Structure formats: structure tokens, C-alpha cells
Amino acid sequence: MLNSLPSMKRKVGIALLGIILGSLPLLGQEKVYPVRQGIDTRVFVTADRSAFVVDAFQQRLTVGFPDDNEVSFVPKTRTPLILLWIRIQNTSTRPLDLDVAKFNSTDDAGRKSSALSIEEASKKIIEGASGGSLGAKTLRGISLGRVGNAPTEDQLKDDIQRYSLQSGQIPAGVVRQGLVYFEAPQKKKFTVSIVLGDLWSSPLVFSTEKQK
Predict the structure, then answer these.
(1) Strand order from edge to edge, sheet including 200-207
(2) How far apart are CA 30 and CA 187, in angstroms?
(3) Nearest Cα to Cα of residue 61 among 97, 83, 86
(4) C-alpha–C-alpha distance, residues 17 and 163, integer Å
(5) What are phi and psi of 177, to 5 degrees?
(6) How confident is the model at residue 1 (pLDDT cuts 50, 70, 90)?
(7) Hey, what long-range contacts does 155-158 have (CB within 8 A, 24 or more apart)?
């Protein structure tokens, strides 16, 4: 009987872990796809229909939903967010000014909002990951990383800082890329228009439904 106790404890532990993982929130990052509009030859969609490519006057932009590697550090969160991976290549001979604070989104109900700052995005992601019915400490330990190897909030903030698109000057010929965060509408299906400030003033439209 005593010899069976470790085995019983393992089985109970596995069962409890299954209950915990089953009660975690769904991913709050809404996957969006580009919607081709108009006949502007400077804007086209990649062959796999995952991103826009824009050949602007002084830069080339690639804007789309990030792949798994680019968001592997982002935990499960209830907070509805739109994450976009933006790549900027300065094709001019001069430095290019980048101000992410000028980026904004407008949803299909006409609600307009600015891109979230890195601090705002960090706060919303962490709050959404730890706001479940379970204790915040338990949920955070599971949802912010692998069991037994969960990053701290400070580590997560550092990762968000590292992988986010940073404002500042982009030297001639240099590429800068990273994540930009927007609040998503509180519904399953939606369309949203993204404006990239001084980089590209025409809206780039994304939808939760993949275009044919």
C-alpha cells in the first residue's frame, strides 16, 4: 500500500494538471488576414495571403499576422488583441523617422483607437493571463510559460519590449521589424483598418475571415 502512494500522487497530479490546463483562457490574439482593396499597384498581398507588402516612396513595408515563432513568448490571455508583425526597410538614402504612436486602427463599427504602447500591451497581456477564476499565481505560472519553467512578469515584459517595433530613426538601407499591438473588437468576426501614420496614410484592411 505504501509503495503505491507515489504512483497515486502522480496520477492525482496529472489529473489536476489536466483540470488546470482545461480551464485556461483561450488565446486572445485574434488572427487576421489582409483584404485587398482598390487598384493601387504599390500595395499587394503575399502569395500565401498572410500579409500586405507596400512599396512606398522611401520604404518597403510588410504588414501581417505574426507566425508562431514571432509570438511564441506571448502567453494565453483573455484580453482581445490584434498583433501585427511589421517589417520596414528604409530604401532611401536618408534616415527614416518612425513613430509607432501615430499608428491607429478603426473597426467596422467606426471605433478608432491608437496602437497600444509597449507598457499598455504588457499590462493588458498580463492582466488577461492572470484574470481567470483560478488564483492569479497558479494561472500565471501555467499560462505564462511551460509548467516548471514559467517566466516572471519582468521576464515577460522584457520579451515584449525586445520583440516590439520601436520608434526612432531607421538609418538608410536598414531594416527594422517587430510586433505592434491593437485592441480588438469584442466579437468573433470583424474587419479592421490599420493606418501606419507617416509611413503609409492609406488604410490597410484586415479581417478575421481569410479572403479567397
Answers:
(1) 33-35, 200-207, 191-196, 103-107, 112-114
(2) 10
(3) 86
(4) 30
(5) -150, 160
(6) low
(7) 156/73, 156/75, 156/122, 156/125, 156/126, 157/122, 157/126
Give the chain as a DSSP string: -GGGHHHHHHHHHHHHHHHHHHTSPPP-B---EEE--S--TTEEE-TTSSEEEEE-SSEEEEEE---GGGGTTPPP-SS-EEEEEEEEEE-SSS-EEE-GGGEEEEETT--EEEPBPHHHHHHHHHHHHS-SSS-HHHHHHHHTSBTTBPPPHHHHHHHHHHHBPPPEEE-TT-EEEEEEEEEPPSSSS-EEEEEETTTEEEEEEEESS---
- pLDDT digit string, tens, across residues 139-189: 344 344 444 455 678 888 899 999 999 999 999 999 999 999 999 998 889
Place of cell 491593437: 182
Cα distances from 191 to residues 16, 91, 151, 196, in angstroms, run: 39, 31, 34, 17
Give the pLDDT confidence of 86-123 residue by residue, as tens digits: 999 999 999 999 999 999 999 999 999 999 999 999 99
